[in-house]
Amino acid sequence: MSPRHTPRGKPTLTTERLTLRPLTWDDLPELEALDADPVVMEFLDRPRTADEVRERTLARLDPTHDAMGLGYWCGLERSRFVGWWLLTPEGPGLAEIGWRLHPWAWGRGLATEGAREIIRHGFETVGLERIVAETMVVNARSRSVMDKLGMRHTRVEVRPWEDPLPGAEQGE
User: Fold this and answer.
1) Which of 12, 77, 90, 100 has the CB geometry, 3.0–4.6 Å to 94, for a possible disulfide?
2) Judging by beta carbons within 10 Å of its beta carbon (0-12, 13-18, 19+), is residue 145 exposed, middle or buried?
3) Interior CA angle at 60 toward 54 and 66, to 5°?
């Protein structure tokens, strides 16, 4: 990665409706509620316990990612937590983008709006060369966001899972 501007941690990003600020431990109650919701977790995993979310939050707050201008952002609409977005390193010049929103925020274009700003930051500020995403084939909502972002489908991969989610046989 050769940034156009040297990042100094993750900046707060704004869109027309969202404030995307770096995720902090203060967001833990919201993260616990999000990951405990079976509707939110339908294509991701089983709902998680508070202890599991705390353990995952430690990795989400990785200071090495933050120093590169990457990591996790908390999304707020008029100060209300709607979910989070991520842009995490996958290799030189490469990062993965993702998002997780409360169901009441679905269908309003917020996932796409936040992801567009994260992508802009990744290319323009961080200097990424490529940004990728993945989701289950059956996750039509996330696939729609990826399409709206102009992402190109490259392959389907069927992975062996110990306890597969419904639809896993169709791949990711």
Assistant:
1) 90
2) buried
3) 140
Q: Are 149 and 114 in contact (CB under 8 A)?
A: no
Q: From CA 71, how far away is CA 39, in angstroms rounded? A: 24
pLDDT digits (tens, 9 = 90+) for 141-172: 888 888 899 988 776 666 676 766 565 565 56
Strands 94-101 and 13-14: unpaired
Q: What are phi and psi of 86, to 5 degrees?
A: -130, 150
DSSP labels for 50-64? HHHHHHHHHHHT-HH
Contact in structure between 107 and 145 (CB atoms under 8 Å): no
Q: Give the DSSP per-residue string, 124-149.
A: III--SEEE----TT-HHHHHHHHHT
